[in-house]
Amino acid sequence: MLDPRDADALPGDLDPALRGEVAHATARALVDRARSSEDPEVVERLVRLVETEGLDTVAALWADAAPATLPGALWRLYVLREWVRRDAQTVMLRYRLGVDAAPVQEAVAGVPNPPEPGDLRALADVVLSGVFTGDLAVALERAGAFCRILSTGAAFDADAREPADPTAATRLTRGASSLLRTGEELEQAAALWRQGQLE
Predict the structure, then answer these.
(1) How many domains are contained in the chain?
(2) Of all helices (H) and strands (E), which one includes residue 174?
(3) Fewer CB within 10 Å, N- or C-terminus of the chain?
(4) Following DSSP, what letter does each residue of 110-134 receive, concatenated?
(5) Percent above pLDDT 70 for the chain
(6) Is residue 137 within 8 Å of 190, Cβ to Cβ?
(7) How does pLDDT run across 12-40, given as a tens digit for each residue?
(8) Is the separation of the CB atoms in 14 and 7 below 8 Å?
(9) Are 106 and 79 in contact (CB under 8 A)?
């Protein structure tokens, strides 16, 4: 990876093409290194990458990557894991609101019902470690299904809040739309991985 101090020493912003090359190279190196290693500590360090390196560092590498790319998919997984880690209570409530309306997604996501915050944190870690040790497409599909359930829950929450707080309801509706889009993007990335086209 490009060391953050080295990146800061570069004059001006990175050229967008170079930024894209760095994003793809680092994502591929990360996944390849983990898949070729038999050391569980390597996978554990990669799952906890945001905790050790910071979300800003990971964002600098991958946040601008297109969704249907390996760095774009990794970015979405790390952001999802970080949200679950930081606000498991809200995520749990949204999951509980949405799960009954999305039984197929519940089966794919693989979360116990009813979930507890610890269950959701464990799922986020399992999905992310699955990127490095298991079938990447399955990990992406599980994350996509999880996002769809959260999207449904956020939409139900928005409907319930509309009479008392229309501003919050609008914000939740936008969040639900964003979660649905993220779920679709992760599912598209899974399909591309299966076709050998996720770059």
Answers:
(1) 1
(2) helix 166-194
(3) C
(4) T--SS--HHHHHHHHHHHHHHHHHS
(5) 92
(6) yes
(7) 455 677 888 889 999 999 898 888 887 88
(8) yes
(9) no
CB 156 within 8 A of CB 98: yes
CA-angle at 100, arms to 112 and 102, nearest 5°:
95
Is 40 inside any structural domain? yes
b/e 37-57 (16+ beta carbons within 10 angstroms → b):
eeeeebbeebbebbeeeeeeb
pLDDT score recorded for residue 103? 81
Residue 142: inside a domain, yes or no?
A: yes
- As a whole number, the mean pLDDT across the chain is 89
Residue at 199 is within a domain: no
Instruction: Kindly report the pTM of this predicted structure.
Output: 0.87
pLDDT per residue over 56-84, tens digit each? Answer: 989 998 999 999 999 999 999 999 999 99
Q: Is residue 188 part of a domain?
A: yes
Instruction: Quickly count: other Cβ atoms within 10 Å of residue 174's Cβ.
Output: 12
